[in-house]
Structures are given as structure tokens and as C-alpha cells.
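Review form for a predicted model. The reviewer records the input and the model, then writes brief findings.
Reviewer: anonymous (R2)
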Amino acid sequence: MTTLERLAATIEARKSADPDSSWTAKLLSKGAQKCAQKFGEEAIEACMAVAKGDRENLVYESADVLYHLLVMLAAEGVALGEVLAELERREGTSGIAEKAARR
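Model under review:
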């Protein structure tokens, strides 16, 4: 099991935890929209680290982005495995060809 898979499993387990004892449970208790907002905030912070040329902060913020992405997915009932399967389906396909197939 990878680190992301373990983190996704922990987040899933926190769905039933007391929001007063778990940051993840607290986020999830506020609903998917709040989880999406937090994900967006963290993504912006990662972009700002790039704009500033702050590699160390980019690594830190990227970890936050991945965590909040997994929380947002859990809030919507989307399993990490579903996202990984979609990435596997796209593997070896040109990004240009993949985007053209969406039309």
C-alpha cells in the first residue's frame, strides 16, 4: 500500500470520527463544498510558492494539496482507486489526443 493509499484509508476512517478530535472529521462534517474550498486554497498556496521560486514551500504546500484533494474526494464518495484507474486508462495517451477525444 502506498502512502497515498494509506492516507486515503485514514481519511475514510475519519468520516465517523468526532469532529472535535479530528481535523479530517471536522472538514468532512462541513460538507463537500467546504472541502473543495480548502483544496482550492491549498492549490493557490502551491502556485504562489512556484511564483516566488520557493521550492521548499512548494513541497510543503503540495503535501497539503494532496491531503485536501483526498478529503474532497472522500466527501464526494470518490475512491482514490477510481482516480488512479482513470490515470491508468490515460497512460500512454498524448495529452493533446486525450483532450481532443473529450469534444
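Findings: The helical segments are 3-14, 23-29, 32-52, 55-75, 80-90, 95-101.
Further findings: DSSP finds six helices and no strands in the chain.
Recommendation: see findings above.
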